[in-house]
Design brief:
Chain A is an alpha/beta fold and 364 residues long. Chain A has five helices and 21 strands. Chain A is globular. Chain B folds into two domains: 290 residues, no CATH class; 54 residues, no CATH class. In chain B, α9 crosses α10. The chains are: A alpha/beta (364), B alpha/beta (470).
Chain lengths: 364, 470
């Protein structure tokens, strides 16, 4: 039986110079994990089902493209993972979140898959919490597929609180029908190697996606991201924001693509990344793409990398803070701003606890 | 009251770029690319031994390297069909009167001798693989400025300087077409500006490719020594044929300490041209490179002038516009490497796609660990004029120091209906209104060019915009 798997993941939708090493990421000899499921807190109105086929995904979800790409499905298939399915019936607004807690132990080697279908005009919040002990090592992979029918709304919240020697693959693929709306909120706060992909196909007219990602990468940590908003429908909207802090010897690669397909008239896509670099040994790579095959669209992207605004620093220094304190405060503010968007008090508290420890340890 | 006079800018007559001269008594090397062909070019050009070896080594590298897997398709380019050396039946002269009548006539229609008289310090005119005219004003030469053809430089007083710099900045291993250039290069200019000398009026080289199915591989080597200043203008055009032509030139620019070089290009190759050109500048402490680039022609372009900021306080500016029309796939942009502290780069580009044209802005900004207190700002804007066309933006940033200030912004969109409506309400036709808006969009480049060239560029835009309504 195959024990290792070579993967090519997070492919840039349009390649550029190979010497930049941003076109894709090669993962060699990835150990084949065992299937593992989350602890689930199931809201009352949500139905659940097993995937009875032989493949990771059933027909509703197999065709939904994801950010990490096809090799993630290859890994799931080798691990014998079959997605756990959740469905929100049409016209149901579920106020309680669907909670999926992935608690990994030392030397975990696990993979899981979750498929959420939101029926017509339904609404649901899904919270995925990926956690382990602070020093834990291990490898985990989770794939989340979302299918939003007409007018449906899904808010997907992901919190990553993994140990300092953990490798994690987090893959999202979503399909939005007419007027469907997806919101993705992510906090990447721990782990050594994180591979993160998120691709949303805005197929239906006036569908939308909003992604808000905050990260702290430190030590020898590596964060490799691939976000894609695929605009197929008319008047579709995407808004992708990523912001974070790199410390020590951290490496971060942010790929973000707004892809306007022919026929996506009236579509609007915005993308923004703000990164603070807190060490001279960090590597920060950013490649924000706009691909456009339609005239009547509006696409914008922006990035600010490196330093804080001089006037802001001057103002805070005049209030008695030193430069180091200012940068730490602003770094935490980026994460707090995203954390406040989590509509679940217990998840917020877990994040604060994780952050609080991080700050205390640094100060010690 | 007398009627107010209006100033009209005459449209450029496209036919001047499409002048085709019959090939009379020209020397054409056989098609394809073999060691024997490369050796024959070497012999024809009386290369020194090191250059003859360099060509053969470059050919070997060319054969080892793959074509790029990331840009526009170049499947239509078959090197077996390309003639790499075409020599007109004349020798280089410093007098237009000695240039053969048909060639001189072509350059006159392109306005080169007139521009030389009015606004240039020197001109080099290349026709197919060789220069047919080269001249520099006496007062400029008297300052010690050297402006000559590459072959004369390679074999003359500046041979050591050429050998020291030739393809050291762009090596044959850079990419497949740099290797091709190393093997079959011919023509081009050598410029040396001594320390402290400011050449206040520009030099210009104009490259004309007349031969169907041929390649042009000119090499431009410019050394601007400490504290000196130069503005160099490069122009190029070719008549359209129904077979592929190839341009794989190479530009190497060495900008000394506190020196400044402005390098302006209006590229108007015919739309059967594969333009696979390589341009690079190495900038020392306190030096400045300014690129001004207008890309209008070619069937396929790969063009990314690169600035290597190697000395403290070095600076690069890139101002570019690309206009991709029917049948064109223009992949353009720039690369900057910040390799020293307090270096600065400022990139401002515009691109326009129309009639099924594909325009891609591609860039890289690399800030190395050694480049503390560096700054970079990138701005790119794209305009889509219809839904048959395509416009992509692919900017990469690789930042490896904490103390850097990097900003990037990009926008893509269409001409505002409100702006067109406003202009039409003032009595301007829709076609003119759209042309005015596009010219305004391209203003960042035209205002950086000498007046005559800005007028030419605006006329090219007007020409491209004709019939764009509907």
């Amino acid at each position: 039986m195959e024990k290792e798997y070579n993967m090519t993941i997070n492919r840039l939708p349009s390649k550029t110079w190979n010497w930049l090493r941003m076109n894709e990421t090669q993962l060699e000899k990835i150990e084949i994990p065992a299937a593992g499921e989350a602890k689930v807190t199931l809201p009352e109105k949500i139905t659940t089902a097993e995937n009875e086929g032989s493949k990771p995904w059933n027909a509703d979800f197999a065709g939904i493209a994801s950010g990490i790409g096809e090799d993630m499905d290859g890994l799931l298939a080798r691990a014998g993972v079959k997605a756990k399915h959740y469905e929100v019936p049409a016209d149901v607004t579920e106020v309680q979140p669907l909670l999926l807690d992935y608690a990994y132990v030392q030397n975990s080697l696990r993979a899981g898959a979750v498929a959420v279908k939101a029926g017509k005009n339904s609404e649901i919040t899904v919270i995925e919490d990926f956690a382990s002990d602070r020093e834990a090592s291990g490898q985990a992979a989770v794939s989340t597929r979302l299918y939003l029918e007409e007018g449906a709304k899904i808010r997907l919240i992901q919190v990553q609180r993994l140990g300092s020697d953990f490798t994690f693959m987090n893959d999202i693929g979503a399909l939005c029908e007419e007027k469907a709306s997806l919101e993705v909120i992510q906090l990447i706060l721990g782990g050594k190697n994180t591979y993160l992909g998120c691709k949303t196909t805005l197929q239906g007219r006036e569908s939308s996606m909003n992604a808000d990602t905050a990260y702290i990468v430190d030590g020898e940590g590596r964060l490799d991201m691939n976000y894609v908003a695929l605009h197929e429908g008319k008047k579709t909207q995407s808004n992708m924001q990523a912001g974070g802090v790199l410390r020590d010897h951290a490496f971060k690669l942010y790929r973000g693509t707004i892809d306007f397909k022919w026929g996506a008239k009236g579509a609007v896509g915005n993308e923004k990344e703000d990164v603070l670099l807190l060490s001279n040994d960090v590597v920060n790579q950013t490649i924000p793409l706009i691909l456009c095959a339609e005239e009547d669209v509006e696409g914008n992207h922006g990035a600010t990398i490196g330093k804080l605004d001089d006037e802001l620093v001057f103002y805070l220094e005049s209030r008695g803070m030193n430069r180091e304190q200012i940068y730490e405060m602003m770094a935490m503010a980026k994460v707090d701003a995203v954390c406040r968007k989590i509509p679940d008090a217990s998840t917020q508290a877990k994040v604060q606890k994780f952050l609080g420890r991080a700050v205390e340890e640094e100060e010690a | 009251m007398s009627e107010r006079e209006k100033t009209y800018v005459e449209d450029v007559n496209r036919s001047i770029y499409d002048i085709r001269n019959e090939e009379k008594d020209v020397y054409r090397i056989q098609k394809g690319l073999t060691p024997a062909i490369v050796e024959e070019i070497s012999a024809k050009k009386k290369d020194p031994a090191w250059m003859a070896n360099f060509r053969l080594q470059s050919l070997q590298i060319y054969n080892e390297m793959e074509v790029p897997d990331w840009g526009p398709s170049i499947e239509g380019l078959n090197m077996e069909d390309i003639v790499t050396y075409v020599k007109p039946n004349t020798h280089m002269s410093a007098k237009w009167s000695e240039v053969p009548e048909d060639i001189k006539d072509t350059f006159e229609k392109l306005g080169i001798p007139q521009a030389e008289r009015k606004s240039l310090a020197g001109v080099g005119a290349q026709y197919d693989s060789e220069l047919v005219y080269h001249n520099v004003r006496e007062e400029v030469a008297a300052q010690g400025v050297v402006y000559t053809d590459m072959e004369s430089a390679l074999n003359g007083e500046y041979a050591d300087m050429v050998r020291k710099h030739f393809m050291k900045l762009v090596t044959p291993r850079d990419h497949k077409f740099a290797a091709l250039h190393g093997a079959v290069w011919s023509g081009g200019s050598f410029v040396y500006v001594p320390p402290g000398v400011s050449v206040t009026i520009p030099l210009q080289s104009y490259f004309r490719l007349n031969a169907p199915g041929a390649g042009q591989f000119e090499h431009t080597l410019i050394i601007v020594d400490e504290g000196a200043y130069l503005h160099f203008i490069e122009g190029c055009s070719a008549p359209k044929y129904n077979v592929a032509n190839l341009h794989a030139g190479c530009v190497e620019l060495f900008v000394g300490k506190n020196a400044k070089l402005r390098y302006s290009t209006i590229e108007n190759w015919s739309k059967n041209m594969y333009n696979l050109n390589t341009k690079r500048a190495l900038v020392e402490e306190g030096g400045t490179i300014e690129w001004v680039s207008g890309s209008f022609g070619s069937h396929v372009s790969y063009l990314y002038p690169m600035s290597v900021l190697n000395g403290k306080g070095a600076r690069a500016e890139f101002t570019g516009i690309t206009f991709a029309g029917a049948g064109q796939n223009l992949d353009t942009g720039t690369k900057v490497v910040h390799n020293a502290p307090e270096t600065t780069s400022y990139i401002n580009t515009k691109s326009i796609s129309k009639d099924g044209g594909i325009s891609t802005f591609r860039s890289s900004v690399v800030v190395k660990n050694s480049a503390a207190k560096s700054k970079s700002a990138v701005s790119c804007q794209s305009l889509m004029l219809d839904d048959k066309s395509r416009s992509d933006t692919i900017p990469a940033m690789d930042i490896r120091t904490q103390d850097a200030d990097i900003g990037h912004e990009a926008k893509i969109g269409r001409i505002s209906d409100e702006a067109v409506f406003y202009l039409m309400s003032r009595g301007i036709s829709e076609e003119d209104a759209r042309a005015m808006i596009v010219s305004g969009f391209a203003d960042n480049v035209s205002k950086e060019l000498p007046l005559e060239y800005a007028v030419e560029m605006n006329n090219l835009i007007r020409l491209e915009m004709k019939g764009s309504i509907g």
